[in-house]
Amino acid sequence: MRSVQDHLAAVLASVGPVAPLDVVLRDAVGCILAADVTATHDLPAFAVASRDGYAVAAHETAGAGYASAQSLPVAHDARPGAGPLRLVPGSAVRVASGAALPLGADAVVPLEETDRGTARVAMQRPAVPGQHVRPVASDVRAGAVVLEAGTRLGARQLALAAAMGRGRLRVHPTPRVVLLSVGDELVEPGTHADRAGAGVFEADGHALEAAVRDAGAASVRVGILGDDRAVLREAIEDQLVRADLLVITGGLSELTHDTVKDVLATMGSVRLDHVAMTPGQRHGFGTVADDLASDKAVPIFALPGHPVAAQVSFEVFVRPALRAMAGHAELFRPSVAAEAVEGWVSPPGLRQFVPATVLGSPDEGYRVTPIGDPSAPTVSALAHANALAVVGEQDLTVHPGQVIHCLVLEG
């Protein structure tokens, strides 16, 4: 039997970031930057007004605000987008926020501190050099690295790239994950199924489709395939061309009617193992070459068909692989150490993953409570959990007050 650590190590050794691409900004959202972004120019490239008002030479406003109120003629209007004007000595330029500061000016007097004159402007107080002015390169200096490779690109980072004039960025693109659900017994939710046992609503594909997106990847759910070897093999080969990673659920039992093990055994480097964990001991993983792209080997996961086992296996093995393929430095969910509110029994030699509720804070500590029967976790229990309590292979019993490491699924 293979340990969880060994199986995870084999998975991570077989995957790496998807080859970088240059993409337009809107397609870079959520991606990991593959190359540093270096400023080609200062930002701003010239001094800029940060308020609507009047650009002046501060020393020429020394008498403003006294009984003999000083006023200056208004020589021009300056608007954003135009190059800097030149300030005529002894005058002011009406300037909009974001417009280039006229050459010779060193301050902006806000509108509300003036009489808002159009031909001449009187000011309430003298200006101070530098007031309401954004100096050259006050945001970014030419030659500086403004975004480092490895950065996840969100709204704030894209704003900076756009402000630097970058219309495209080199990123590790979002991995494309193809999902296949296998089993003659499966029926699509929303269609007829005999609740006496003649059909099972297909839950894995829908759950994993959401889990893939939550991990930051793109999902393609192909749907349900029956237990037919030829059909399954053809479907896998057809999907390799568009998949960066392929996930198959179900069909892993060692009985003759389950066909996934037979098909995968003849493809690429895929191997089937009993992994020392519960739920979900039977797993398949390996890579299969895409015949249409000789340099492309697609990782394939075969996960247990039970919905709880499939989702736990995804969290433990598939999610870290997807994060690695997307170029993330942090591959794993956050974890906390929590005291067990109640005890339970854990099977010997297996790492147990128990749907649980974790409550608390870093200051007061955390408490973990299992949901349902830890020995037989249900879909309902997992749906109400915010964490997986992880019990080691050597622990046969969890005692109240015992500290358990918990994988946090949501805040």
Automatic annotation (TrEMBL):
The keyword Magnesium applies. Its cofactor is Mg(2+). Its EC number is 2.10.1.1. Keywords: Magnesium, Metal-binding, Molybdenum, Molybdenum cofactor biosynthesis, Transferase. Pathway: Cofactor biosynthesis; molybdopterin biosynthesis. Residues 178-324 form the MoaB/Mog domain. Pfam families: MoCF_biosynth, MoeA_C, MoeA_N. SUPFAM superfamilies: MoeA C-terminal domain-like, MoeA N-terminal region -like, Molybdenum cofactor biosynthesis proteins. It is an enzyme of class 2 (transferase). It catalyses: adenylyl-molybdopterin + molybdate = Mo-molybdopterin + AMP + H(+). The keyword Chloroplast does not apply. Catalyzes the insertion of molybdate into adenylated molybdopterin with the concomitant release of AMP. Belongs to the MoeA family. This is Molybdopterin molybdenumtransferase.
